[in-house]
Specification:
mainly alpha, two-stranded antiparallel sheet, 59% helix, 6% strand, rod-shaped, binds zinc ion
């Protein structure tokens, strides 16, 4: 198959492909044609497809699968998502709000969002008040009514022996009215 194309056109096509590649542009037939046109070379699509440089380019593209690039992108996305999830978790010392169970700062004494405040807990005051009352309670009271003495029990026992426990009970119920 005799080559009718001039050698400088073949070189121009190769140069155009190199230029487009170095510029990071898509090396397409039309891109090469326009590059050649800018250099004053009138070429056809068939000229480019017949060139050695174009065939080498096609061989390179076939030998370089696009899969690794997309896999790399997917990995990055997964990592970014993981990082994003970690950032959503509290990046400060946190505790659970006793009122609304949301995470709040560990040292905060209040949560304006739900109105909880640490000062609202009345426990310390109550603890101080209750023992004082219990301690101050007297064991024996001699005023109004009074406690039953041993002599009183003996008297009731003597009465029970005399009239019977049931009668004493009835008498007590009558007296209670
Ligand atoms: Zn809260």
């Amino acid at each position: 198959m005799p080559k009718t194309k001039p050698k400088d056109q073949e070189q121009a096509i190769q140069k155009a492909i190199e230029v487009l590649t170095s510029q990071g542009r898509d090396v397409t037939t039309s891109a090469i044609l326009s590059t050649l046109y800018a250099d004053g070379i009138r070429a056809k699509s068939s000229d480019i497809h017949a060139s050695v440089a174009w065939k080498e380019l096609l061989a390179k593209e076939k030998g370089t699968p696009a899969a690794p690039a997309s896999e790399t992108k997917d990995t990055r996305t997964t990592k970014e998502k993981a990082v994003a999830k970690n950032q959503k978790k509290p990046n400060f010392p946190s505790k659970t709000c006793p009122k609304c169970n949301k995470l709040i700062h560990a040292r905060s004494h209040s949560h304006p969002e739900c109105g909880w405040t640490m000062a609202a807990n009345p426990a310390p005051a109550a603890v101080k008040a209750s023992p004082a009352k219990k301690v101050g309670r007297p064991k024996s009271v001699t005023s109004a009514g009074g406690d039953i003495t041993l002599d009183d029990i003996r008297a009731v026992k003597a009465l029970a022996d005399k009239i019977g426990a049931e009668k004493v009970k009835e008498l007590a119920m009558v007296l209670a009215r």
